[in-house]
Design a protein that fits this description.
The chain has 486 residues and is mainly beta. It has one domain: Neuraminidase (6 Propeller), CATH 2.120.10. The protein is built from no helices and 34 strands. The strands form nine sheets. The chain has a six-stranded antiparallel sheet with strand order 4-3-31-30-29-28, with no helix packed on it. A four-stranded antiparallel sheet has the order 7-34-33-32, with no helix packed on it. Strands 8-9-10-11 form a four-stranded antiparallel sheet, with no helix packed on it. The chain is globular and about 90 Å long.
């Protein structure tokens, strides 16, 4: 994989008839290899491949039916991953990025102290605690406990939304309009089912909004697969909330109450992923989270039979194409897309490179049309330790899309050493991880470094392609890694 053959000679024998046979003419055809344009050697933690475990080993692998497929938006970019320590412990890490470039990460304080939000304004190099702080004791948050800490950035209003679940029975929303310098009071979001668990929140522009221009929607796990997920909406910026309603079509049997993170499109649709009774599925609402339709992606490639059998991650790009990701029965990550709001789906792709043999914790985010970043943890060899992986696709609708995969940690710096980490609740990873793309087009993934004490880390690209705006090389960052851990 490290060595690419630059030239392939194709011989074409053309007999010539002019009264007698002459020597055959040989035409030399030079095949272009776009990797020859790289200025540096490809790192051992970077892998270029096609879907379904197909390596790009040689120049001829880049050609289909005589045509080079690695060109245009599908061209390879030199890429390298790294991570930076947040310096604080985490559990079920989520992150958000505002238009200023500030990155926000959840710090799990535990019972009695509550979630704090940690902020970096220098692309992950340094971090500070921005609360929200209790008025009496600054070590304690305004919400003194959160079983599931959660941060979300409403990209339509550049608004931080902190969503805490208290003791499985009640939830609170706090928000900041100024990058965490100050916060609202906690607004209660209480449902009628117990437990209230595995909460997720998102926004989308919608005509139903009565304060501002977006509707907020959250969904929770009811604790019962038969009851399915329950959802609620706020039409006034998160201050008050409707009564919880079922997050699926009325009368449709449900087989899973847990779900992945919500994703809102700029056309007013909102999506959440979890299995239907037939396979991995996406649920869609177009009326501001009031009613939902069910869209099974595939009946052929089922869900992981383990702790994360519920987790279908969803994303929406700027052109409102929908993406879904899940871990399959063989513990490998799959991605599919829909170009008609979830009504029909592409054939799913297995998106890990061939050297990765087991994965867990899927997460996905989309940028410009056809550009998507996804993440997971994976093992290359059994009991070899878990790495954090990001996959990048810059031309998702290409017949042969290039996947650029980077590990954010070095092979001797595993993020967890438990052989079953990807198949169960695992240290600081908890039940899920998170990924987003900043306005420059750089992806960031929220992970945990369990051997270091469940310390939160953000993985990103030192170099790679932009996922927003013009497709070009990102501005380089400094390498991070183990030396940034406390």
């Amino acid at each position: 994989m490290r060595k690419l053959i630059a030239l392939i000679l194709v011989s074409m024998v053309m007999p010539s008839f002019s009264g007698c046979f002459s020597e055959p003419e040989v035409e030399e055809v030079v095949l272009k290899n776009p990797f020859d344009d790289f200025q540096n050697e490809i790192p051992i933690t970077t892998f270029y491949h096609f879907p379904n475990g197909t390596w790009i080993n040689e120049t001829e692998d880049m050609y289909f039916n005589g045509s080079l497929v690695l060109e245009g938006n599908n061209s390879p970019f030199f890429a390298e991953g790294t991570y930076y320590s947040v310096g604080y412990t985490t559990f079920e890490p989520t992150l958000g990025i505002t238009s200023s470039g500030a990155i926000f990460f959840t710090h799990f304080n535990g019972l009695g102290e509550g979630t704090h939000i940690i902020r970096s304004t220098d692309q992950g190099q340094t971090w500070v605690d921005v609360g929200p702080f209790n008025q009496i004791d600054e070590d304690i948050g305004q919400t003194p406990n959160s079983n599931d800490p959660y941060i979300y950035v409403d990209k339509f209003n550049d608004k931080l939304v902190k969503f805490d679940m208290h003791a499985l029975t009640a939830m609170f929303v706090e928000y900041s309009d100024n990058d965490g310098e100050s916060w609202s009071i906690p607004f209660p979001v209480e449902g009628y089912y117990a437990p209230q668990d595995h909460q997720s929140i998102a926004s989308m522009p919608h005509e139903n909004a009565i304060v501002g221009d977006v509707v907020y929607v959250y969904c929770i796990n009811t604790g019962s697969p038969a009851l399915g997920a329950q959802c609620s909406r706020s039409l006034d910026g998160g201050h008050t909330w409707d009564v919880q309603r079922i997050g699926y079509p009325f009368g449709t049997p449900q087989c899973s109450g847990l779900h992945g993170h919500l994703a809102g499109g700029n056309d007013g649709a909102i999506y959440r992923g979890n299995p239907s009774c037939d396979g991995p599925a996406v649920y869609r609402s177009t009326d501001g989270g009031y009613t939902w339709s069910e869209h099974t992606i595939t009946t052929e490639i089922g869900m992981q039979d383990g702790w994360h059998s519920h987790e279908v991650a969803t994303a929406v790009d700027e052109a409102n194409n929908v993406y879904a990701m899940w871990i399959s029965e063989d513990h490998m990550p799959y991605v599919a897309y829909s170009r008609d709001h979830g009504d029909t789906w592409s054939e799913p792709w297995m998106v890990a490179p061939p050297n990765v043999t087991e994965t867990g914790f899927p997460t996905i985010f989309a940028g410009e049309e056809g550009r998507v970043a996804f993440g997971y943890i994976g093992e290359e060899v059994d009991e070899g330790g878990w790495s954090g992986y990001m996959g990048i696709i810059t031309d998702a609708f290409n017949e042969h899309p290039l996947i650029t995969t980077v590990a954010v940690n070095q092979p001797d710096d595993a993020l967890d050493e438990d052989d079953d980490c990807g198949d169960k609740r695992c240290g600081g990873f908890g039940d899920f991880i998170d990924i987003e793309i900043d306005d420059e087009g750089r992806p960031w993934i929220a992970l945990a470094h369990n051997p270091a004490g469940e310390i939160g880390i953000v993985g990103t690209l030192i170099q790679g392609p932009t996922l927003y705006g013009d497709l070009k090389q990102l501005t380089p960052l400094m390498p991070g890694g183990r030396d940034t851990l406390p």
